[in-house]
Specification:
The chain is mainly α. The protein is built from eight helices and four strands, in the order H-H-H-H-H-E-E-H-H-H-E-E. The strands form two sheets. It has a two-stranded antiparallel ribbon with strand order 1-2. A two-stranded antiparallel sheet has the order 3-4.
């Protein structure tokens, strides 16, 4: 079997890629499978030097997926802020503290509102019952929260942005197309913080993804050439 000069380097790079992917705790399964498949096709696939195959067509075939599924995987990784993540840890029930017990009131909430962090733009939920002292406790929080919206910065993304960690490509155009295919008129807008999760500002209590050397070039018969990047081929089917 003929060995290309880049075989050993490809093996080492793929091992590094796999280790990094499996070590990323915020990696959804679909995104993980796509990144590993793209990495395999780019670095280890025996047919990676075949000029008749594009990286994306080969990846799609290996994943046994149609074009719409591939677009959906890209759309799922579109960088964005998801309020359900930032508010997932918020307590339920009335959040006014008890006077004689080290706990929150916990009664059914009758008044709820959101407050926005002035540094991250992320939201958190508040809720209070109708008990007079709980309503009184809520008043300054309500005033603070009411004004927080007017000075709220663009929320720092907390979802997606993982594909650009590993591969150099025109991700903005692909995210826009994928969102159009999967979400229709709702669409997607790129955050000003960047598309790659390692570019986003660090948030207290959140582990920031680390940068990884992006796959851009391969070697063929000793010469470095530009590999055709991931490109969805054909129309969207089903």
């Amino acid at each position: 079997m003929h060995q290309h000069p880049d075989d050993r380097d490809g093996l080492l790079r793929y091992d590094e890629l796999a280790a990094r992917v499996y070590g990323e705790r915020r990696m959804p399964q679909g995104t993980r499978d796509l990144i590993l498949s793209l990495g395999w096709v780019t670095l280890r696939d025996p047919r990676r030097h075949d000029p008749t195959l594009t990286t994306w067509a080969r990846t799609r075939d290996m994943m046994n997926a149609d074009n719409r599924t591939m677009w959906k995987l890209i759309a799922d990784d579109a960088p964005r802020y998801d309020a359900s993540i930032s508010e997932a840890g918020d307590p339920t029930g009335c959040q006014a503290p008890m006077i004689r017990a080290p706990r929150l009131c916990g009664r059914t909430t009758m008044h709820g509102f959101s407050e926005f962090d002035p540094a991250t733009g992320w939201s958190r939920s508040w809720g209070f019952c109708n008990r007079p002292r709980c309503r009184e406790y809520a008043k300054p929080i309500w005033e603070r929260a009411r004004h927080s919206y007017t000075v709220r910065p663009e929320p720092i993304p907390n979802r997606g942005g993982l594909l650009p960690l590993f591969f150099a490509w025109n991700w903005q155009a692909k995210y826009e197309k994928a969102s159009e295919v999967t979400m229709g008129a709702r669409g997607w807008k790129p955050p000003s913080y960047g598309l790659s999760a390692d570019e986003w500002p660090e948030v207290a209590g959140q582990e920031k993804p680390k940068a990884f050397p992006k796959l851009r070039l391969i070697a063929s018969d000793g010469e470095v050439i530009a590999r055709q990047g991931p490109a969805l081929v054909g129309g969207i089917h089903g």
